[in-house]
Amino acid sequence: MLGKKKRTFIVALIFGALFLSVQAQITDPSEVSALRAIKKSLVDPLGKLKNWGSGDPCKPNWNGIFCFNSTSSDGYLHVREVQLLRMNLSGTLASEVGQLSHMQIFDVMWNNIAGTIPKEIGSITTLKLLLLNGNHLTGPLPEEIGFLPNLDRIQIDQNMITGPIPTSFANLNNTKHFHMNNNSLSGQIPAELSRLPKLVHLLLDNNNLSGSLPPELYLLPSLLILQLDNNQFTGAIPASYSKMSKLLKLSLRNCSLEGLVPDLSSITGLGYLDLSQNHLTGVIPTNKLSANITTIDLSNNKLVGTIPQNFSALPHLQRLSLENNQLNGSVLATIWENRTFGSKDRLIVDLQNNNFSNISSILNPPTNVSVRLQGNPLCSSANQLKVTQFCGPQPDDNMESSGGTSNSTNVCLVQSCPAQFYEYVPSSLVTCFCAAPIKVGYRLKSPGISVFPPYVSIFRIYLTSSLDLDLDQLNVYSFIWEEGPRLKMYLKLFPMIKDSHSNQTFNLSEILRLRDMFTSWAMKDSPVFGPYELLNFTLEGPYEYVNTIIGSQSTGMSKGVLVAIILAATAALVAVSCLIVVLFLRRHVKEYSKISRKRLVSNIPIKVDGVKDFTFGEMALATNDFSNLAIVGEGGYGKVYKGVLVDGSAVAIKRAQEGSLQGQREFFTEIELLSRLHHRNLVSLIGYCNEEGEQMLVYEFMPNGSLREHLSAKAKDPPDFGMRLRIALGAARGIQYLHNEANPPIFHRDIKASNILLDSKFIAKVADFGLSKLAPVPEVEGSEPGHVSTVVKGTPGYLDPEYFLTHKLTDKSDVYSLGVVFFELLTGMHPISHGKNIVREVNHAYQAGLLLSVLDSRLGPYPFECLEQFAELAMRCCQDETDIRPSISEVVRELENIWRKMPDSVYTTSESAETEIETVGSLGSSSVATTKDVSVSFGISGGDLHSGAVPDLAPR
Length: 956
Description:
By secondary structure, this protein is an alpha/beta fold. Among the domains are: 30-126, Ribonuclease Inhibitor (Leucine-rich repeat, LRR (right-handed beta-alpha superhelix), Alpha-Beta Horseshoe), CATH 3.80.10; 401-552, Alpha-Beta Plaits, CATH 3.30.70; 557-598; 600-701, Phosphorylase Kinase, domain 1 (2-Layer Sandwich); 704-774 and 792-905, Transferase(Phosphotransferase), domain 1. The protein is 22% helix and 18% strand. The protein contains 16 helices and 48 strands. The strands form 13 sheets. A 14-stranded mixed beta sheet has the order 2-3-5-6-7-9-11-13-15-17-19-21-23-25, with no helix packed on it. It has a six-stranded mixed beta sheet with strand order 33-37-38-36-35-34. It has a five-stranded antiparallel beta sheet with strand order 26-30-31-29-32, covered by helices on one side. The longest helix is centred in the middle third of the chain and has 40 residues, at 559-598. The protein is globular. The termini are far apart. The model is unreliable at 1-26, 53-71, 405-410, 549-578, 588-605, 776-785 and 905-956 (pLDDT under 50).
């Protein structure tokens, strides 16, 4: 008779096998085949599509494919969405994509996919969103796409598509968005497009389009944005365009257009007009433009006459650009007079290089207004004294940027949130409330403004109402104008904070709802901000668990599916019987192995304050039963897994292999020691597991990888000199703590670039104390042995030569290894490469006055004095004689002195910057403070205790 546990196990096996078998049966076979073909045609360096086309390919996967049960009577599950956003994919798109006949969203944005767009996409009649932008696609647009009856949006922008726009696109009666900018489309814009009843955005800028502009486009009843910049048209702007009654933005910059400026005064909602860099002639129309206008750019044409009065007192005008024309007469101060300016309002009036000879009144604009008159006769006439301040060269400050638009106070800056990935909620009514934000990269593709700060509040209202969030839940963290102009910004979404007991994180359903709002373009269009695009939706820290949980959610089942389950169950029983026998035997073998391992360890109970005692089941759940996909590193101790605990926090789990198991007391001693090490620049021990014959250590997870990876030749965004110096200082402080403040003190014994890990803010943390050795303890008060006699262990290239020869480990042994790391920071080289030793190579170059010849070419700008002092410190650390090397405290002090000499400009980035109060002192705890600390996202994968995260690719 089988025991109760064995019977339960067999029953579970039967139901599990039946379920898997049924799942495979209820997925449409043709779609399974299509998914396999798509997978085969793509190059997937990160292995995100590994399980496609096997087992249940339609199970939702947060990083890859989304599959749902379509409303179908055939009993099959059907693919409804394919979303492969930012997965670093290359290869081509397989023609079998046309077999996904129930698909509504096809999203492969921001990858490196090449080849042509498969014409078979035109057979997916259910398709609503075709999102191909940000790839390397070539060839023509397939005519077949023009026969998709439900298509709402086509985005092919930022590829290399050639050929004409097919006239068949005039059949897309439900399409609202044509985003085809930044390609190589040629030929004339088909006049037939004027038949499209729902088209609101027509973006064709930055192509090779030619011919005349179709006058018929005025017939588009819903058109809001017409953006055709940087093409090669001929002829004039059709007068019929003045009849585009709903138009919000007309941008025809640099299109080789001729003729007159059309009278657009009848377009009552027009907010943005750019006709610059053409060959327009004649005078500017005198009828008053829309009161909503923010931007008027008629620069770089051949316009004559005077500035019309209709440019005066426009309440929302941000930019009037008339430079490089042949205008004359007076400069009108009425353009800004009688207008009230808010503190963030800005008006640029650029009249440079015209023939203005006088002024209508004394020019005394408010500080919000910039007037530019250089290159006009009045700057060299009797009026010069009245206008001198406006006649010199002035920077073009149109493309402003911001490191943040938060309304937070400085009250919280003296503290820090207790948990990683948590931040103070800037607008929270609860002072200094910490919560975990979701970070969103967001870009306005055709905004109707030229200056953003006055519209930040309006934007926050627009976006929060679209996302159904409270206003306080959105922080516009930073923004920058890009060529186009387009406005890229970084947003932080915070959970709702009502009181001090509010949740600090979003729940799963809210995360999924928010991402779906962005990716399905469910938010309403804005007349001011125009179309948008999602650049990234970052789930890190407490939200990383979503990547695991989403894959375990089952889909709903229709009646047809239930019928399929019953039929499939019968067919599966035979196969399941065989499977049970195999698994039963394997289980016995596995249990025997576990029993053998348990005999190696006694049953002494372990309990250590300050760290958590995890069960084996918790560790198995966190790593998906120790899946190979969860392995992020492997060393002499054993394998390292990335795990996600039940609370959503990510951890690194070091699992001892059988030959590395310690005795119970030794394991307890190591945990007790590690639990007492707490420093900002050390990787923290969270817990341990000691059951089922297993020994595991659980550490905090380092999402930005190891220093070695960022210095490798393959690193896409290597750190600059300022960042490298900051990492060196952080690592030195961590080692200083081990030597001078840990109780008892510790020698690390294996300091190397791959053991210096980087957290989400790029703060360096020393890791891997597997080889660490307790420092000598004084036997008599006032005396202390200077070394520990030990078997030589460590990594070639980093080993202290004296320790290698004498087997005497000292604190200066760690200093030597750290000096080698400093050389890596300076040169990017490996410690030993092709028989060359980094210490010897740098020393020889320095002695010969050729230090610059061995430096890493990717260091970026740096003060030479700081770099030279850093190099000299590295050489002193790597002296052969122990006594000549500085102590770790001296190393920290010198690094701090070098850090203070660094200019602030080294640390500014266009992406984002966070100021962090950094306490500087000889022991890392003195009162000298600096704010030269920056958070930069490099997103490199791999390493021992860190992430295999996808790099956050910058949009082209």
